[in-house]
Amino acid sequence: MFPSALLSILIASIDAANGQYIRGSGLANNHAVDQTYTTDAKEHLLSILSGNISRGSLERLENLMRSTFSALPKDSSGHIGHQATRYLLHRFFIEQHGWFINGLEASEVAPAPNTSSYWVPSYLQGLLEQQVGDNGVDLHAVAALALSVQDFIGRETSSRFERIRAQLNTPQYATTEEFKEALSAFMMVFHDDGSYLDERQDEFTRELGLFKNSYAYWDDAVRFMDEHFQKGVQWTDQGLVDVEKSSQIVQGMGSRFYEMNDRQCQDLKKLLTSYEEVPGRMRLTTFYNLSGYTDWEFGETPAYLRALGALEEVESGVQRVITTNYIQSMPNCIDSSSFFNVCCRNECEDLMAHLEKDVSAPLADSERLLQLVAALPSDTVTAPREIPTHLQERLKQIATVHNGKVPLHSRLFAQWMHHAYPRECPYPHTSGSVRPFTADDWMKERGEAITFESRAHAKEYMRSICDMRGDCESPHNVTELPWSTEEELPLQAEEPEPSPSPPEQESEPEPPLVVSHRGDSQANSSEKETKPSRSLQSLAIIMVVVVVVAVHMAMNRNESIQYQALRGTAAVLFTYFSDPIFVIATLGGGLLVTQVLPHIHRESEPRKKRQQDKLVYEP
Q1: pLDDT tens-digit map of 241-288
Q2: Residue 477, pLDDT score
Q3: For 71-190, where are the E strands, in sequence order?
Q4: Residues of the chain with pLDDT under 50
Q5: How many Å apart are CA 149 and CA 143, to the nearest integer?
Q6: What pLDDT score does 566 carry?
Q7: pLDDT of 537-577, one tens digit each?
Q8: Strand partners, 235
Q9: How far apart are CA 245 and CA 255, in angstroms?
Q10: pLDDT of 412
Q11: Dist CA 446 CA 79 (whole Å)
């Protein structure tokens, strides 16, 4: 009986723990979520962490992340914190695949699970952080997270290609033309988050033809597909394509699509920078006018540009587009997957990767950084070069703020890099001042479109600001980029809070000070009595309840109700206390009481009374 009761306690303990808050995930008893999603994600991550995959796969990812990991702020154990983990994952997927992973935005609480895939990276991170507690995360664990997310994306890609084959009736052994038609359809689906897959078969085929004719970079897409086809095609003896064995081609296309997308981003960059007023800035009116004589449409409203962090409004009232911020913003992203968007790559992260590799530490001397940056070229900056005097002084000022060292992942250094590489590094706004709205998010929150209704509306807006500020074509006197002294260290690792130590005894003891750890005011005890701690008080109350319930149930010999009471008590204890050993020991003590007290009770009864009971109750 005792082992089965103890098992009931353990089951109740696990049930209670699974309903608890997971640090970093924001989960708390979300019964509306389909448990298959969370169970699959959890089992997959635990499988990777337990070594049920090739060690070489993890080592490869660890090596790719190592230089960035070395440069991130760490705690005394050499581990990184919550935000640094998200940053490292973001950098990995951007650098390796050009994927802007949904759910890795900088935030303290991640979205709860739902049927979309936005929650997956955050939920996996929350599971990992639940395992390590406040001890931070090491490189091996981050690599496991990355591999798990990567595998989920691979599954989605395979599933979509199967649906494409069904739409086109692509056989298992296909001709070259049939297989390339399926690859073309994959390119179309990749450009619109799979929405075309919901079309009827005849509509799907029609949409594919329209896509080929209207996509401005279709010739580049054909070359891109041919490159991957030649690398990964598997032939049968009859000269047909073995579709299943060749399906890894679409995995490669999804992983390397950013290479083709970069050509479009570079075209956009060349266009905008050619109309800049100062490096990294162009007049808003010029921005709107480009739609009239180029193949690009620039119609985002000032309110939307401002929310994206792509609009600058200087003291003179001049509105300018921050070209780098605009190029890297959501309007120029391709909604490719339920897991990620493909956006124009942040070229500044390539520059930062060089600095991280050379410095291999979170902090650096200003002189060392000046040498490295002077020798580091970009797409629009030649090297070696002489760093302007005012930038040298500003970097030294940043070091002064931080006791002689420059934090590589601080807001001020990001701003300094924006001044050093204005066409590659975005301007770093302060936390919470901007947000990467998608068109749908903007519509839901603001109830308005992200663009003007028509080009005529854009011209009307331009005319209004020109009338207010004079000739729009006259040069403005604002030539310097803005500089803000606000500092932020978003990736700083937090040390675990030490356990409170008892106060030292004074020669003349003062009245004990009762301190509430929940922000309550401090209070002195005039009676010089040391009150029991809140935990001991709670333990006493709970133990009394357990004993009373256990004795009552034991006397009634209703074991089913007894177990239910123990399971309920387990859930209560796990909700209140975090130490599983303490809870199980407490419940074990209560269980022993339920087994021992009935025998004591029975032995204490007069023999004659027991015999009378037997006569009464026996049939």
Answers
A1: 999 999 999 999 999 999 999 999 999 999 999 999 899 999 998 999
A2: 60
A3: 99-101, 173-174
A4: 1-34, 107-117, 471, 499-535, 537, 540, 544, 557-558, 560, 571-572, 574-576, 578, 597, 600-619
A5: 10
A6: 57
A7: 455 455 545 555 555 555 554 454 555 555 555 544 544 45
A8: 241
A9: 18
A10: 97
A11: 40
Q: Which residues have CB under 8 Å from 505's CB, separation 6+?
A: none
Neighbouring CB atoms inside 10 A of 349's CB total 16
With beta carbons less than 8 A apart as the criterion, state whether 465 and 319 touch. yes
Q: State the alpha helices, DSSP H only, in 364-523.
A: 366-374, 389-401, 411-420, 439-446, 455-469
403: left (phi over 0), alpha (psi -120 to 50) or beta: left
pLDDT at 109: 41
Q: CA 245, 248, 254 angle in degrees (round to 5)?
A: 160
Q: What is the pLDDT of the chain when averaged over all its residues?
A: 76
Distance between CA atoms of residues 66 and 55, nearest Å: 16
Which of 147, 252, 229, 140 is closest to 181 using CA atoms?
229
What whole-number distance in Å separates Cα of residue 95 and Cα of residue 580? Answer: 41
Chain-centre distance of CA 433, in angstroms? 19
What pLDDT sits at residue 118? 56
Entry field: residues in the chain:
619
Dihedral class, residue 361 (left if φ above 0, else alpha if ψ from -120 to 50, else beta): beta
pLDDT at residue 119, rounded to an integer: 63
In whole angstroms, how far apart are CA 6 and each of 11, 477, 506, 584, 590? Answer: 9, 79, 47, 9, 11
3-state SS assignment for residue 169: coil
Q: Is the pTM of this model over 0.85?
A: no
Label each residue of 42-99 as H, E or C: HHHHHHHHCCCCCHHHHHHHHHHHHHHHHCCCCCCCCCECHHHHHHHHHHHHHHHHCE
Supply the pLDDT for residue 440.
81
Q: In which residue are the tokens 């970009």 written?
A: 378
CA gyration radius, the chain: 32
**SS3 label, residue 313:** strand
Helix H, strand E, coil C: the string for 330-387 is: HHHCECCCCCEEECCCCHHHHHHHHHHHHHCCCEECHHHHHHHHHCCCCCCCCCCCCC
User: Partners of 311 in the beta sheet?
Assistant: 321
Asked whether 337 and 156 are in contact (CB, 8 A), the reply is: yes
| Residue indicated by tokens 């990184």 | 80
pLDDT given for residue 586 in this prediction = 59
Listed in sequence order, the residues at least 6 apart from 375 whose beta carbon sits closer than 8 Å to its beta carbon are 383, 384
Terminal Cα distance for the chain, rounded: 27
Backbone angles phi, psi at 341, to 5 degrees: -115, 150
Residue 303, pLDDT score: 92
Q: What is the pLDDT of residue 523?
A: 35
Contact of 346 with 265, CB cutoff 8 Å = no
Query: Taking the C-alpha atoms of 280, 282, 284 and 289 in order, what is their torsion angle to the nearest 10 degrees?
Result: -130
Do 493 and 81 meet the contact criterion of CB atoms below 8 Å apart? yes
Phi/psi at 257 (5° precision): -60, -30
- HEC string of 236-247 equals CCCCCEEHHHHC
Q: What is the pLDDT of residue 54?
A: 66
Alpha carbon distance 105, 113 (integer Å): 16
Residue with tokens 């990777």: 48
